[in-house]
Amino acid sequence: MKPLQSILHFLAKTTLFRFAFTAAIAVCLFSCNSETYLVREGSSSYKIFVSKDAPAPEKYAARELQAYLRQISGALLPVTHEITGDSPFIYIGFQGAPGSLTHEIDPGSFPNESYILRSDGTSLLIAGGGSRGTLYGVIGYLSDRLGCRWYTREVRKIPSSPSITLTKFEERQKPAFEYREAWYTEAYDTRWALYNRLNPTIAPLPDSLGGSFRTYPFAHTFYNLVPAEKYYAAHPEYFALTDGKRQKEKAQLCLTNPGTRAVAVKTVFEWIAQHPGVDVFSVDQNDYMGYCECPACKAVDDREGGPSGSLIDFVNYVADTVAKVHPGTRIQTFAYTYSEAPPKHLKPSPNVTIRLCRYNYCSAHGIDECEHSKPFRDRYESWKKITERISVWDYFTDFSQYLMPYPNFASVTRNVKWYAENGAVGLFAQGNKVPENGGGEFSELRAWVFAQLMWNPDRNGDGLIREFVENVYGKAAPFIQRYIDMMHADVKADTSHFSIWAQPIEVNYLKPELIARADSLFMLAEQAASGDAALSGRVELAYLPVLYTKLFFYAIGGSSYLKADKYPATLAQFENILKKNRITAMGDMPDTYGNIEAFLDKVRSAPAFVSDWHILGPFDNTDGKGLRKELIPEPGIDLNATFKGKNGDALQWRPYVNEVSAYIDFKKLFDPSDYTVAYAYHNYRSDKPRVARFGAGSNDGIRVWVNNKLVLDHPESRRAEPNQDVFSVPLKEGDNHILVKVDQLERGWGFYFGELK
Ligand SMILES: [Zn+2]
Ligand SMILES: [Zn+2]
Q: I need a labelling partner for 369 at 20 to 30 A (CA). Which of 241, 321, 402, 583 fits?
């Protein structure tokens, strides 16, 4: 049996190093014979020393090292506070470590979170700075040198080897970012977050485990600083002036008003007194527009080229006032939406961190490779010229479609690297944390990859994804990896961009044939996983976005995604997976677009859609009154007649079938497609006289005639959904003539039509 090797420069090799630890096989890259054995054939003469005065996280680190070494090798190394006897030691923390291991180190100035592993070939020192450095050192030793991994809450990889060697070596590491948070349910599991060395602020790790990076309050704090319920009545002038009115809610503050500033400073001093140990205090804009347009604020903004002017002026005032009393205290503010572009002349004070948000740029591609991200890169560069402290907030999910396949791994892996290379001090990766449990597409994979890259962005992102897939999906891994590769292949082109608000019908990659191939791959994955209930569960969860896509399109008449006879089983499987995984939301607003029940209702009430029509248009609607203007002889239908269209063109009826969904998308079918009206005709056959219930949905207003009788007249500006209007109509045996008319001002234009079951 060869020993599990401690390898110098292991990290540098990890990208090339195929994960090869198994229960019986360990790897020895150097000559093993000349090395010291930490554990040999299951027994060890080593002890783990930690000072009895060491802080709790270091004592915890010693116990964890003991437990993992035992699990790996079978040997139980005693943890001791005494340095006696002849046995060699693993020293945890600087306290009590011998000079031979601590030379040229000043433990007091060792940087927070960074650590050193140092061995003279006999003893080993694992020690670090701040409250977490030593614990991170133990985790680094276990992961980088012994091959331990904590992929998910359930799937860990702890190698097994009765022997572990120790060479003379030294290694120092520090995280790329001082603040590392990934917004996935899995990433807030305390032990998972600890072992993957995230330091989240939303659910901080306890002090006994080294604590977290603490932000207080988390974000959007203007109304915490100056509460409207307390100040608005007496001092409306503290609040933003927009549309000629001082706004009490859903807006910002008046940032130049001396009274606003006095209250804000007072509040921050209270926070500082009440929340010791906080790393940064948020003095940042609310999550609305509505910045102040009073003459004083506007003057600053005009001078500075935009509303970040009055914002930075205000934040600097607060930060400078705080610095006089609490010199080390940091203040943080957003550069977000209206404040994303930096001021022309002002610079943030040295104790101010700019939390720069990459909101709603392309998600398909890495920030460095997509022209759609160029405006953001330029803004980042501009901020970088005036501050050394940029902490990034980036978005990595579809916020209205957590369960939609979202092939954005290029932005996941490349953006972290880019931020590190460009000197960002922190990164908040906003993913899809939902109450109770995850369930966003590949959320565990994403959380793990983010955690590894936030610590060390030099690691190969694609390699990390493959490593996760191989180890978490086991026998099913080849099929899952092919699925991932297939989904990403369609978005590599620099023409296929998508945003964090993309809808399934808008993206280019959710084609019926691709979903059919995904089905086949998951069938193979499920077969490979059979007999292993836990693995089957993970494969099933990865399949959920494919099922979601099929049901999404089914609900809008996409019969090429899901045939009616397969629908009941697909729906049952989807609901079963949701239930098993306790997934309770599918978007970041569970009350509205993230509501699972609302989605299921839409699926269940999907009508028998009509997707083949004769269409006619576009007619003019410049005055917006076209819906109720007789543009052709209504409601009689002459499919051979010619009409005069919006631009004076001759228009004729033409047949049209949408094979992807039942949405009749006039916007794509007609040009021009703004300030227009169009018609659609269908001959609806009935085998007997009966009353039918129809559902229609339109963008914008709609009129419907059945057998020459007006049965629906609904002028409205709205986004089309099936069944927005439901109505009952008597049908004759045989032919029934349905005429639909939809008007249009701007943006979307089209309709759904079907018979309810
Ligand atoms: Zn103002
Ligand atoms: Zn792009």
A: 402
